[in-house]
Amino acid sequence: MQTGETVMAAGCCGGGCSSSKPPIDRTYRRVLWIALIVNAGMFLVELIAGAAAGSVSLQADAMDFLGDAANYLISLLVLGMALQWRARAALLKGLSLGAVGLWVAGQTAWNAVYQTVPQAEVMGIVGAMALAANVGCALMLYFHRDGDANRRSVWICSRNDAIANIAVLAAALGVFGTGTGWPDIAVAAIMAVLSVSGAAQIIRQSLAELRPVQMTAI
């Protein structure tokens, strides 16, 4: 389903509306800066904690934080640019999110073969910190979720991370209760699916927004 901005671009592309620049939303820009700083900080925290605890779900979540920090930076760079540039940025973010999902899937498979029992206490503490950070970002971005593919990609990534952090906490409880690493592996697999499915949504909408521009150029 196309957004209102996409339909507008398709309906008046002959008049060059796809190249027009929208006014910069200063509130949205401020929210993106806050989310960028929070995600970059949590990437470092989870990367170190995940390696120390031997948790693949924490390491996978750290990669999500890194990907989101990069996505927020890209969104800031294209904020106020024409729709086609924002759609191209969204396409890049969709591809990167898909790559993260595939990396997590590979790491999950590796840990399933060479399974170690992660430290549930570290998983729980860091997972709670990450959940608080992502829920805060998701709440801020919820009010900016509608619009072009670039703006929607930011919301999808934030929403997926909040869901993933709840799953990490569930994995910590599972590891603590069972004394095995399987809950950690199962959650990492779910996170991989979330990343790939989110990437597919972003790529699909960004290509839909780029299509009118390509038809105009023919």
Task: Give an overview in words.
The chain is an all-alpha fold and about 220 residues long. The chain has a single domain, classed as Alpha-lytic protease prodomain-like (Up-down Bundle), CATH 1.20.1510. About 80% of the residues lie in helices and about 0% in strands. It is built from seven helices and no strands. α2 packs antiparallel against α5, α3 packs parallel to α7 and α4 runs antiparallel to α7. The radius of gyration is 19 Å and the shape is elongated. The N terminus is likely disordered.
Question: Layout of helices and strands, plus pairs?
Answer:
Elements: H1 4-11, H2 26-53, H3 56-78, H4 83-113, H5 120-142, H6 149-178, H7 182-217
Helix pairs in contact: 1-7, 2-3, 2-5, 3-4, 3-6, 3-7, 4-6, 4-7, 5-6, 6-7
